[in-house]
Design brief:
heterodimer, A: alpha+beta, Beta-Lactamase, 3 domains, five-stranded antiparallel sheet, five-stranded mixed sheet, B: D-Maltodextrin-Binding Protein, domain 2, six-stranded mixed sheet
């Protein structure tokens, strides 16, 4: 069921139940009041008539009695009948004309307002025992007032008063009330409809926006001005949408970088294959060159060329071996390694970049460093990552200094560059996986994250300090005793 | 909120139901079917008692009812009461439709001509079988004696009344006038209490009333009587008697009951209420003065005309 319908149904139920309760109460109250008034009026007339008919009864002046009751009946429109019963309950005079109704005779026969001879002679003022009974006749409800004449010693006067008058008034009031309730109901429905419509249209906006977000449109915002719960809902929704949108953007970047990583991994594997393929013919070529050089007849410029070729081939072999060793999958395998040596080997990988970027390299390697137990390939990967990052940050002619020292029982390796530095707001995210400020394709944002986990595996620490446009310092500590 | 709502409707329902229960019982009847004709049963052996309109029918009924109930009980026969003006009661007596009657002395004097009526008993008031006619005016009236009444309005009781008609007419006749030209206006009230009311309420300037009724009312309705004052008291008249038709078979028994009223406690109480000492068997002569007065009035009236 729609909210509209619910609210309107509830409204109708409330108005109707309230309305009809009010009608019931008013009906009861008014008919009660009017009945009491009618009784009062009837009693007043009956009392007068009963008093006035004493004399005609005593002198048996039936004509006068008949005239009196007929006049009374004519004077008051509510009076349906008047009749007088003598002490033997025989009708003396009545206003029915041709006959006295049997039903009425039976209905009033039970009434003894006062027993003739037993009643006191003087009527007590105001406390005459009268009786009122309600008769349902074909002329509607009639209130029959039985009033004793001279305390019942002369009989009883009966006055029939129609309740039609009460019913007319009551039904007029009830009709008017029903009309008012109907008007209120209609007004209520119309007002509720408009109000609910306004509220619900805002709700509908919210629902529409949520649907769109569900379909992937995160730019959805709701424009709701009201300050009620719906306004709050819209505001909360907008905040949620904002966060969703941001997260979505990050997710998209991460996805792009993941693809790049996968690509690079493929390229890496491919490179290993290529290196392997090159390695075999290279061995052949090296053997050939060496065999040629073993010939003493080759002298002068030719020997010089061959020696140069051999030198070049050795360099290629060395590079290929490094690629192969680096790209081959390693188990975490610890061995004693010289940190200084690992730094130097790492620098070999980036030699061409150092020359290309005319980087001023400053090496302060402590001579007294002990060898430590570590996975040299992994440590070298960390160094390469850091040096590579430094080179990315450095401009032409920049300075990179690497120093090692023994501090307490740790080897401390410090990399300092005077490159562009890291923005302050990025500083706490640099170790997050896939966080990168580099252009897509130039980095995947895994380097530092991997480095962090490697150093942690070695129970060491890595920390980065940086100021934008001033440079970055990376400090690695590796424990000696393990 | 729902619970409150339900509670609210529950309370409403309870109130409504409790209201419904208060409704009066309704009898279903049919007005179109005629009832069998029934007549009031009149006891065959009832004694028919008439009361002349000495006082208004209601007062008379209240005045005599206890006495009649007592007699009815004593003689073991129902009594049917008939009230009417003097003339009406006289007619009924003459035609034997009434066995016994309380009538005015004036009416009695009138009746005797027919000779079908016998004097049964008469009450003693203040130990005398006498009463008076009072000429009364309003308490604040400037009228001090009968002569002042010339040109004033006057209320008679009944043309057959002694104290309420014959006596004032006699007074006027003695002055050589008819009441029609002596008084500015006259009315007949047909009961003594009505005449007193007429004077007390200033409907009329003066009236002549029965002293017994006046004294009785001055005790039972002092508020009314105190609005009047007596300017003239007549000479004593024979007191209004109880009469019977001469053929009434129980006249002896009833006479005995009347005469022995003061010998029984219940009878004494009734007599005390009626301000009567006892009933006696009177001498007819006590009414002679009224008879004489009547003759004089007739003579004077004839002369005056």
């Amino acid at each position: 069921m729609k909210i509209h319908t619910k609210i309107i149904l509830l409204l109708i139920i409330v108005i109707f139940s309230l309305g009809f309760s009010v009608i019931f109460f008013v009906k009861e109250f008014i008919s009660g009041r009017l009945s009491a008034e009618l009784d009062e009026m009837g009693l007043c007339i009956a009392r007068n008539l009963a008093s006035n008919c004493i004399e005609p009864i005593l002198v048996e002046d039936l004509v006068k009695l008949q005239k009196m009751i007929s006049d009374t009946k004519q004077l008051e429109k509510h009076i349906v009948y008047v009749f007088i019963l003598d002490t033997q309950s025989v009708p003396v005079v009545h206003t029915f004309g041709d006959y006295f109704p049997k039903g009425l005779a039976d209905a009033v026969s039970g009434i003894k307002t006062a027993v003739g001879a037993l009643a006191p002679y003087n009527e007590p003022k105001g406390s005459t025992p009268y009786q009122i009974q309600i008769l349902s006749t074909e002329q509607g409800l009639i209130r029959d007032i039985a009033f004793p004449i001279l305390n019942g010693r002369l009989g009883t006067l009966h006055l029939g008063i129609s309740e039609k008058y009460i019913q007319e008034i009551v039904s007029a009031i009830v009709n008017r009330l029903i009309l008012i309730i109907c008007i209120i109901t209609v007004m209520g429905i119309v007002l509720t409809y408009f109000f609910a419509n306004r509220t619900l249209s805002e709700l509908k906006k919210v629902i529409k926006s949520i649907k769109k977000i569900g379909e992937g449109d995160f730019s959805q915002r709701i424009n709701v001005k009201s300050k009620d719960e719906i306004g709050l809902l819209a505001k909360t929704f907008n905040e949620m949408a904002e966060k969703l949108e941001n997260t979505n953007i990050q997710l998209k970047n991460a996805q792009t970088q993941l693809i790049q990583t996968a690509k690079m991994a493929t390229v890496g594997q491919f490179a290993a294959g290529v290196a392997h393929e090159i390695n075999n013919p290279l061995a052949g070529i090296l053997n050939c060159v060496r065999s040629l050089l073993a010939d003493p007849e080759i002298k002068g410029q030719k020997r010089g060329y061959l020696e140069l070729t051999l030198k070049g081939l050795l360099r290629i072999e060395n590079t290929i071996k490094q690629i192969l060793s680096f790209s081959s999958k390693h188990e975490f395998k610890v061995m004693l390694a010289d940190v200084n040596q690992l730094i130097k080997e790492s620098l070999e990988f980036v030699k061409h970049r150092l020359t290309e970027q005319k980087v001023v390299l400053e090496l302060n390697l402590s001579e007294s460093l002990p060898k430590i137990l570590c996975d040299p390939y992994k440590i070298q990967q960390v160094f390469l990552n850091i040096i590579s990052n430094a080179l990315d940050a450095l401009t032409v002619g920049g300075k990179l200094s690497i120093s090692t020292a023994m501090i307490d029982k740790n080897i401390e390796i410090i990399f300092i560059d005077n490159g562009k530095g890291i923005k302050e707001e990025h500083l706490d995210k640099v170790f997050d996986p896939f966080f990168t400020t580099k252009e897509v394709g130039k980095g995947v944002g895994l380097g530092l994250s991997i480095s962090y986990s490697i150093i942690q595996q070695h129970k060491g620490t890595i920390s980065i300090k940086s100021k934008e446009n001033q440079g970055t310092t990376v400090v690695i500590r590796l424990p000696v005793n393990n | 909120m729902n619970k409150k709502l339900i509670l609210y409707f529950l309370v409403l329902a309870i109130i409504n139901f409790s209201n419904c229960n208060k409704k009066k019982e309704v009898k279903n009847i049919n007005l179109s079917e005629p009832a069998e004709k029934i007549e009031t049963k009149i006891p065959q052996d009832a004694i028919n008692v008439g009361i002349g309109a000495i006082v208004s029918p209601k007062e008379g009924f209240l005045y005599y009812k206890e006495l009649l109930d007592y007699i009815s009980k004593k003689i073991s026969k129902p009594i049917v009461l008939k009230q009417g003006r003097y003339e009406e009661i006289n007619r009924l007596l003459k035609s034997n439709q009434i066995d016994l009657a309380f009538i005015c002395s004036g009416a009695y004097v009138e009746l005797q001509k027919a000779a079908q009526v016998e004097l049964l008993v008469a009450p003693l008031v203040n130990n005398k079988p006498e009463y008076y006619s009072y000429i009364i005016v309003h308490r604040d009236s400037e009228i001090e004696n009968f002569s002042d009444l010339k040109g004033k309005s006057f209320a008679f009781v009944d043309p057959l009344s002694n104290s309420g008609y014959l006596f004032p007419v006699y007074l006027v006749a003695k002055k050589g006038k008819t009441y029609q030209n002596y008084f500015s206006r006259t009315i007949f009230t047909y009961s003594h209490d009505n005449s007193i009311i007429a004077v007390a309420e200033k409907l009329i300037d003066a009236a002549a009333v029965d002293s017994l009724i006046y004294n009785w009312l001055s005790e039972t309705n002092p508020e009314l009587v105190s609005k009047t004052k007596i300017i003239l008291t007549s000479p004593p008249f024979g007191i209004p008697p109880v009469v019977v038709h001469k053929n009434f078979n129980l006249k002896k028994e009833i006479k005995k009951i009347f005469l022995e009223l003061d010998k029984e406690d219940e009878g004494k109480k009734i007599l005390a209420k009626l301000r009567i000492d006892k009933f006696i068997s009177p001498d007819d002569k006590i009414y002679d003065f009224i008879r004489e007065m009547k003759i004089k009035v007739n003579e004077l009236q004839r002369l005056n005309e």
